[in-house]
Amino acid sequence: MAASAMAALFFLFSALLRSSLVHSQGLQIGFYDNNCPDAEDIVRSTVQKYYNNDATVAPGLLRLHFHDCFVQGCDASVLVSGASSEKTAPQNFGLRGFEVIDDAKSQLEALCPGIVSCADILALAARDAVGLTGGPSWSVPLGRRDGRISSASDAKSLPSPADPLSVQRQKFGDQGLTDRDLVTLVGAHTIGQTNCIFFRYRLYNFTA
């Protein structure tokens, strides 16, 4: 990977790590070392398995983690199913990677029942997805608890492709993130793909 791309990924995931810690207190490196020491290895191997089959799962996991953290913190509430859960919100249309988290969770429940949270699995999976794309790795502070409340209406806080800059800045600022974080995290979409409808209007007669 080119040095410029590596630098971009470094800043991207520095921002992502900050966003994942904004609402999380009391986390620590090696949280599961005593009660489920193989947790990180199991998540890593699971992500590797899915990535080997379909490399586009990497940006999918990144987006999934970002959308989770941006709404009520990194509590895995985006994984909750229900008629009016976050998962059903228009802002979360096209989220993917759920099967990776479900698979890792099933393995961990068989090995260490009731120990490893889905929120931590998602944070680890996003980190490991980055490494598989050639980006940097980092130690993930763990110990998150899974949220029990998930509401589609809360997803309105997520940035939208139609938001003007002022709204984007306010939404990121509300999360304790800077303008640089905004540019970096929104730029994360460059490792995935999008539909023309989301940027076509910027190609013609765009003055902003």
From TrEMBL:
Cofactor: heme b; Ca(2+)
Positions annotated to bind heme b: 189
Single GO BP term: hydrogen peroxide catabolic process
Cofactor comment text: Binds 1 heme b (iron(II)-protoporphyrin IX) group per subunit.
Residue numbers binding substrate: 159
Keyword Transmembrane helix on entry: no
Keywords in alphabetical order: Calcium, Disulfide bond, Heme, Hydrogen peroxide, Iron, Metal-binding, Oxidoreductase, Peroxidase, Pyrrolidone carboxylic acid, Signal
Residues carrying the site annotation Transition state stabilizer: 63
CDD domains reported in the protein's UniProt record: secretory_peroxidase (cd00693)
Protein name: Peroxidase 1
Organism: Oryza brachyantha (malo sina)
